[in-house]
Predict the structure.
Amino acid sequence: MGETTEEAGYESIRIDRSGQAEAFDVIGDRYDEAFPYKAGQVSAGKFLAETLDRGSRVLDLGCGTGLPTARQLSDAGFEVTGVDLSGEMVRLAREYVPKATFHQIDIADLRPGGPQDLGRFDAAVAFFSLLMLPRAEIPLALSTIHHLLVPDGLFVLSMVEADVDDFTISFLHTNIRVSGYIREDLIQVVEEAGFEILDEDSYTYAPAISDVPPEEQIFLRCRRTG
Ligand SMILES: C[S@@+](CC[C@H](N)C(=O)[O-])C[C@H]1O[C@@H](n2cnc3c(N)ncnc32)[C@H](O)[C@@H]1O
């Protein structure tokens, strides 16, 4: 693999996942009820479906229930692998998208030299999953994604625009910790991790459940450079 765990930059960080998987274990299907309109994800999936060859390997990081993305990408003829920290999300994804393969894995464990090796992918998506990491880990997760992609591999990222770091919010009657950036800073972090940004979309989103406030969602379509 070339790089050691130390080189991957995690050695100076204490990884704290307390409560994060448990929250999504409890949320389960309610996540899709709260966020029923997934135009950004669907449009990004269509971009991959139109760009990649059938049979391409695609990784869905923080796949949630597998809907709509893992299913859309599977239906497009790709070999889809989904990973999620939450055992319940992985269970639902396996039920909803039997053609794809799902693993209960922490994104951090996919780092170069880390305990999990899923091989290389032609494309990766991370829809609203990197925002579950503290800011100190987001550039490391982006480097991991760079490492998991073939040269020129595609990456689609979505985040909520917010200037917060490991900030506790009440979400669907549980507490989760989230991070984010203002748009310009997000673009800088993504470019510094070795990605060229091909296109960008944003959506103002009012979730269907009232304890989640409206949010600005940013979707970046990127290509691995270097
Ligand atoms: C906000 S949901 C998004 C789900 C899906 N990508 C979508 O857009 O519908 C975030 C997902 O990331 C997962 N997640 C959080 N931290 C993770 C980590 N460190 N590694 C892998 N998955 C993680 C959560 O369990 C949850 O399913």
